[in-house]
Amino acid sequence: MQQPSIIKGSSFKDTRGELYYNNTFDASSVRRIYIIDNSSINNARGWQGHKIEQRWFLVVTGAFEIELIAVDNWQRPSKHLKPTKYILKPDSMDVLHVPAGFISSIRSKELGSKLVVMGDYGLGEIADEYKFKADYFKFKSK
After folding, report:
1. What's the rounded Cα separation, in Å, for the pair 31 and 120?
2. pLDDT, tens only, 99-139
3. This prediction's pTM
């Protein structure tokens, strides 16, 4: 199974201001784009994900904590699967690539944070939405 990865971006600053860019992110597979703007830093969107669809996440304002779990069984995943945590900020325009086979929990770290989400399938194109209750997994937070 392909693993999640950070596609590194960068920035350039001069007297005119700052330019943020990611020249290594290939967006040719992107079919859909939307923005998440959570109403609270106390709520997490998760656990949900895709067996077939892949996603890319890019923070434009604020910061987000994104936890990912590789699912072992889509009908009844093990309750003790461990998440991998990523913190994304807009300062370098890094893109988090989440391949097919993962579920995520997404939490704003600051009010007003905005997360661009990109997917490689159009809305309703495939039936590939899997959701699990927030307390389904029994791992201990660090």
Report:
1. 5
2. 999 999 999 999 999 999 999 999 999 999 999 999 999 87
3. 0.93
The verdict on residue 68 lying in a domain is yes
In the chain, the number of structural domains is 1
For 29, other C-beta atoms within 10 Å of its C-beta total 11
With tokens 């109403």, the residue in question is 39
Evaluate whether residue 93 is within a structural domain.
yes
- Residue 142 token pair: 């660090």
Strand order in the sheet with 44-50: 84-88, 64-70, 102-108, 44-50, 130-131
Q: What CATH number does residue 85 fall under?
A: 2.60.120.10
